[in-house]
Amino acid sequence: MVKKLPKVDVVIIGVGWAGGIIASELTKKGLNVVGLERGKERKTEDYYMVHDELRYALRYELMQDLSKETITFRGNERTRALPMRQYGSFLLGDGLGGAGVHWNGQTFRFLPYDFEIRSKTIEKYGKNKIPKGMTIQDWGITYDELEPYFDRFEKIAGISGEENPLGGKRSAKYPTPPMKKSPQMNDFEKAAKQLKLHPYIVPSANLSESYTNPDGISRAACQYCGYCERFGCEYGAKADPVVTVIPVAKKTGKFEIRTHSNVRRILHSGKKATGVMYTDVTTGEDIEQPADIVVLTGFVFNNVRLLLMSNIGSPYNPSNGTGVIGKNYAYQVAKGGAVGFFDDKEFNTFAGAGALGVTIDDYNGDNFDHSNLGFIHGGMIQYNQSGMRPIQNNAVPSGTPTWGKDFKKTSIKYANRYLSVGSQGSSMPFQHHYLDLDPTYKDAYGDPLIRITFDFEEQDQNLAKFLAGKCGDILKEMGANHVDVLKELGPYEITTYQSTHNTGGVIMGADPNTSAVNNYLQMWDMDNLFVVGASAFAHNSGYNPTGTVGALSYRAAEGILKYHKKGGSLV
């Protein structure tokens, strides 16, 4: 017997960055909102004096329990998908704040080119530049239209940065100055400038100074402890939903958070969502929460999976490219770059912060000529000083034995004498890259797992080698005595960490035939259902996605408030 609760104005599924922003904006306007989070409560006090690399970085304390729910993966449709049994390529956050708690804090704006990628590519290079099977499309919104929402997110999060010389125009400066420069950052910046490139300090959600945001939330400055990625911040210096937007929503008295609440279906009648059904994981009880407006604000896989399990929207069909739910799954070409070993320089790389570094965008987007290159788009190149924790970091030059006396001697020699310059490439969608429900494997509740069908394409291989070569050039200019550069990008494999930047599956656009949501992230098929997050990305850029997720969340919140007043389609 399902327990039915009283109706509320809005129910939110997943209380991370997107859910926290939506809740904050809606409750400030007087709407009654329930946030359903399947994980547990989290707070800053949980991380006091807990710099435990083994517990958090290697045993994944903040991540989803894969024994209860995971994903399945295959490289192509000719092979059988198998469950991901241990963490590798990406990390799925769990609990209040979601992946927004354990992120590094790099907060970029996608380039103007990204939002009109198909039109701009054809305009400059012609249709033949787009390879067969690549399904890039414009997003149904321009950078200029989204810019005010980028600005809003950066002010709420207190992003520390300096203007990107090759980025889109800004309406205001970053709210806080850029972070400190380490000696290695200075070396990278100097080398890049000598190569006629345009370096700038990474825009960071790790505060460079104490800051009070427009909602009155005050936070302390970063201590450069080096425990950001895979960790919660004990100082509250790293912007995350738990210390920024969620407290604002709770203060209104209009926001109720229910943790340990695993949403399993979106309920609907005709072309309207009527609420959700979720299971209280502490009791096993099934509960129905009716609502006037339903908002999916989960991670990419969860948003897509819920829509497919609830029979909402048209499932994507890779054989002919029709349908939209599950379409244009994209990842990131983040594996590679170059490592430089220095015989006469020693570095302190243990101090750092998740978003401490210097970036160049000379090879990102369409900032360079692609006429004679075997790929479109590009990626950023970066020296990032996130803090090299001792268990995970032990690089040696190529040709070094992998064990024994010589390995130990070389490890000790270069322990503080090597630097990595990395690239993060864009990921273009292809007709045969998609998400659907696995026909075989199920979760602890008997619901099907989400299945990924994805592999690196020739586009990705060409891009990775190109960017790695540029990384090597910078390290040589920095004075490295030995440089190891990525030579080949092999098939995608799910066992090695690359990034948690999964995108697509519920993509935005201007045409209901080719997209699932409009530019307010309102579903074309069900106007009181909004799907917010990186699932809306029609491709993945050469950047971390969180800044664009934040901007789209503020736009979606505006759209939900408009819908609450007037109803109907917003575009």
From TrEMBL:
Record keyword Flavoprotein present: yes
Transmembrane segments: none
Region (Disordered): 164-184
Keyword Calcium listed: no
Pfam families given in the database record: GMC_oxred_C
SUPFAM superfamilies reported in the protein's UniProt record: FAD/NAD(P)-binding domain (SSF51905)
Domain Glucose-methanol-choline oxidoreductase C-terminal: 435-552
Keywords: FAD, Flavoprotein, Oxidoreductase
Membership in a protein family: Belongs to the GMC oxidoreductase family.
Protein name: GMC family oxidoreductase
